[in-house]
Amino acid sequence: MIPELGHIALIIAFCLAIALTFLPMWGAARRNVSAMNVAPTLAVSVTLFVAIAFSLLTTSFLRDDFSVAVVAANSNSLLPPIFKFSAVWGNHEGSLLLWVLILSGWMSAVAFFSRGLPLIMVARVLSVMGFVAVGFLAFSLLTSNPFERLLPSTPLDGNDLNPLLQDPGLIIHPPLLYMGYVGLSVPFAFAIAALLGGRLDASWARWSRPWTNVAWGFLSLGIMLGSWWAYYELGWGGWWFWDPVENASFMPWLMGTALVHSLAVTEKRGVFRSWTVLLAIFAFSLSLLGTFLVRSGVLTSVHAFAADPERGLFILIFLALVVGGSLLLYAMRAPSVASRVFYTAISRESLLMVNNLAFTVATIVVLLGTLFPLVMDAFSLGKYSVGPPYFNAVFVPLMALVMPFMTVGPLSRWREDTVGRWLHELMVPGLAVVLLAALLGIFGDRDFNVWIALAVLLSGWVSLGVLRDFWRRVASGDGRMRWHRVSPSFLGMTAAHLGFAVVVLGAVVVTQLNEERDLRMAVGDVEELGGYRFELLEIGQSQGPNYAADFAVFEVTDAGQRIALLAPEKRRYFASGQVMTEAAIDASFWRDVYIALGEPIGDDAWAVRLQYKPMVRWLWLGGLMIGLGSLITVFDRRYRTQSARSESSAVGAVGFAG
Amino acid sequence: MQARRFTPLLAFGLLTGLLYKGLSIDPTALPAARLGQPFPPFTQRELISGAELTEQALLPGPALVNVWATWCYSCRVEHPFLLQLAERGVPIFGLNYKDDSSKALDWLAQLGDPYRLNIFDADGLVGLDLGVYGAPETYVIDEKGQIVHRHVGVLDARVFARDFQRWFPTGLTTNRLSLGGEER
Q1: At the N or C end, where does chain A have fewer CB atoms within 10 A?
Q2: What tens digit of pLDDT does each residue of B134-143 get?
Q3: Residue A297: predicted pLDDT
Q4: Is 90 exceeded by the pLDDT of residue B25?
């Protein structure tokens, strides 16, 4: 009975979403206030019924109802309850339901927080989001019904959740990632609503900004968590693979980065308007494209859900409708008059344009690399896979190119600035960072490494510049700190830019100084790596709730001092028979020690991989700073009072946040 | 209305066409240029013994020819499954493709050796004749030494049960084998 109720709730949500798509939109066209007024109520109702469907599916999982096909395929009675819960989205059907749930959650949030906005704007925005919801609800109901039953031949037990997904990281990674992915639908809906209304002004940009920042912040956190999970769960110690599915989430992030910055220019100065609208459309389109790539089986990836051309066709048609429709609307309605706002080549506008160009090019580069195998295949030119060498060769220089500008941008002035002032402002941090890089090169206890020197130079430049800017704002002549001048937007920007520098430094150092050895080790064997001594103390077997494991215990010592006891495992899961490597990691700020078991060799020895990974934590620390920095910007007072000020033009206003 | 405003729409149109085409393609299926033809003749060294090998050494089939290399990360993922297959009596020949012989010997010593023999194809000539795109790849040759199947990518229990089992009916069932290839 429960699955059927869930199915009905989903159908009701679908009908409500159809009403939400048409009624307020019609009202907006006819200036019918009562038709527009129902939009928030409808949005919240859709959320309610999707939430009911979602919780009923969750109930089926928790109650081990193996008559439900999805439960039978992805759960097992032995599975720990927390993983029964996360198994809800560890499969195509359930994760699609999560997608819709989060979309409707964003819809309700817009309905709630936008009460001060003009009614016609709210009506249009919610209608556009309602249309997206209709598409995905139809997708779920028609091709991927999560409530499908296996009656009357109900299996006795389920196939179990893929062991790779039986991990705490996977409980929160998909919801966070979807928060970001799907959240980009909000700036998209605002862009479409603005195009429909013909009002692409500064107030539109100000309304979109907090939503964009939050969505982009979640996306950053989601990607960071995914990288962290891959690092410890896959047992290879890698943290980014340029896998098509990783790229699918990375492309909206790159485009979102451009959007976040472009919106700032549009809000403050009223320029780049068409461009910003286009970025908003692209960012969400790339989210949809990612959904298509992951769920259609067009590209091969370990992440990809089971290939199904029928599903692929459905999303493709929907993608064509949404993106094609938006771009057509853009072609017809984008402001045809160039804005008359003046700015020179030496100004903050120009620097933000550098950001926009770099991140747009980066997106295109990743898109080309991701789709290249498909292009070659489509024209029967052979099968290819594009690997990290391509992505690294084009992506790394692009990011290195952006970094010098990251320091200048936040402290430069709108409209017009002078190179002389920049030089004056940045002389001290510039000299300091060159000195720092040189000192590290001379006095560092390692051989000189040109890549690390470059990374120190660039990251140091960004960090010192950002900190200098922060200091200049806070410090006053009389020695008292003026903390009130630090707005949440400014703090967020500072944190995010610092985070970027931290990620870059971590990525370069771990790539350059990573040490790893594949060894055969028996009990009593001692090996050395990265200055540490590894002794294999013990080999044994243990039993988990739904698996049996071989484990080994290593003592890691540094100059006679015990650093850690590490126990990597090799698990065999009962239900599926799959074997998983559980790496053991001793993590710290400056380095990780990472041990993974390979295969048993003979009776008493194992193939072992030892890794020493300096500064690998910085990747995720930086990611956290970027994500949280972006999230705190919404607490800025400007956004809370947006309704009262919505009519005033912000052109010419000097703001704090970049 | 300006014509260049339609540029994004046009670009998207092309992309949609491409994606539509992509739906009808199976990215893992590869036509083997030599499907149904004999294994290309070669004369190379055996990796471990250094003895001279020709295509005659692969007879009689059916047997697997597995293209691998130490630089190939996926091969490492695939390796445990090959060991299991060998243990269950499936004859596997290795084609050590564009590799360094000392690294390859280390690999086999550490991870175990599932191969009956290993063709040491340092300059990739055998791979070229065979039409290898990359490692890992696995071919099936029948009793007469003809290539009857080709798989690109990691060979795991699922793929084996689906595409390979009919040539090797020696009691292999999916759930008795670890899906080693599932680890990414």
Answers
A1: N
A2: 678 899 988 8
A3: 64
A4: no
User: Which of A298, A310, A318, A576 best probes binding to B when mutated, by most B CB atoms within 10 angstroms?
Assistant: A298
Q: Tell me how far CA of residue A625 lies from CA of A223, A405, B109, in angstroms.
A: 13, 20, 45
Query: Best interface-test mutation with A: which of B16, B23, B108 has the largest number of A CBs within 10 A?
Result: B23
Token pair of B158 as six digits: 């699922």
A581 to chain B: nearest residue by CA? B183
Residue B181 has pLDDT above 70, yes or no: no
Q: Which residues, at least 6 apart from B88, have a Cβ–Cβ distance to it below 8 Å?
A: B170, B171, B172
Reported ipTM: the value is 0.77
Burial code (b: 16+ CB inside 10 Å, e: under 16) for A292-329 equals bbbbbbbbbbbbbbebbbebbbbbbebbbebbeebbeb
State the amino acid at position A469 in one-letter form.
D
The pTM (predicted TM-score) of the whole model is 0.81
> In whole angstroms, how far apart are CA A370 and each of A79, A246, A249, A284, A374?
35, 10, 12, 17, 8
With respect to CATH, is domain B28-182 assigned 3.40.30.10?
yes
User: Which residues in chain A come in under a pLDDT of 50?
Assistant: 302, 643-658
Contacts of A599 in chain B (CB under 8 A): 79-80, 83, 111-112
Where do the domains of chain A lie?
Answer: 1-166, 418-513+618-624, 515-615
Domain boundaries, chain B: 28-182
Q: Is B128 exposed, middle or buried (0-12, 13-18, 19+ CB in 10 A)?
A: exposed
Report the 10 Å Cβ neighbour count for B52. Answer: 10
Residues near B16 by Cβ (< 8 Å), separated by ≥ 6?
Answer: A316, A319, A320, A324
Among A236, A324, A373, the residue with its CB nearest the CB of B12 is A324
Pairwise pLDDT comparison (B71 vs A271), residue with the higher score: A271
